[in-house]
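Researcher: Structure prediction, please.
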Amino acid sequence: MWVYILKRLLLMIPTLFGVLLLTFVVIQFVPGGPVDQYLAEARTGRGGSAEGGSVYRGAQGVDPQRLEQIKALYGFDKPAHERFVQMLGQFARFDLGTSFFQNKAVSELIIEKLPVSISLGLWTFFISYLVAVPLGVAKAVRAGSRFDLVTTLLVLVGYAIPGFVLGVALLVIFGGQLQWFPLRGLTSSNWEELSWGARIVDYLWHITLPITAMVLGSFAVTAMLTKNAFLEEIRKQYVVTARAKGLSERQVLWKHIFRNALIPIVTGFPSAFIGAFFAGSLLIETLFSLDGLGLLSYESVIRRDYPVVLGTLFFFTLIGLVTKLVSDLCYVWVDPRVKFD
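Model: Predicted structure follows.
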């Protein structure tokens, strides 16, 4: 197994290199780079109109010497291949660079935004699994019953509603009309002045609507996956044998079926856990004004803040590769019959 782990770790290097190379090449052809963004903001600050996004229009009326100084400020005075090699050297030391426009280290920005993403991810992950898995088991045991049909209909209807649309509806109804929940942020403005008990209540009060909007899609997938996994195991021969030995339905379900049926679910824990942090939260963060990693990545792309774009991409890709490796290792932990060789 250790040889397999070593091979997978070594394979991460060309994968990371390919992802960064492809993104870096695409960036070179995107109009409106950091220099143009700087010039546009400078012209807007003087009361001018920052029209257009091309480098040629953005540089009109700028002294050539000044333009070269701005390019040197962002490192664009060097050829593209030199900048790419320099970036790889920084990333090899886990130095993600410094933001062009926020004057902060990219790693520092990521750490600042992590609490929001962790809040959304943890609640989404735990609520989805703690509710969906028991529901899926109940649906499998009562397959074909009225309970199964009604819950399937409700789950599929919930899955068909995009999280962003549900978030808008929740904001309008419960945040606007009824005013039961706040419209933005994770905490109130006077959060620091509250007691610990009041802080917990305030935090839960703010997180209810965005978590409800995020949970629905993953909840439906997990519930149906659990049901189908249990139904597949219930039809197998070892279940018939266990029942023939006189075991009760509860013993058959929880001692025999449960462990085997949870293999595809448990092995997906790492991916689902990490995915809840970094995937699908951009629209929710924007809608509820939550300053997390999704919003940071989006704003960095819009502003052409390339160190943040490439730094967060490197961070997300590395986390994703490690998570995939952990998911594969979980197969052996859950099912000893699986061999890497």
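Model: The chain has a mean pLDDT of 78.
Researcher: Thanks, that helps.
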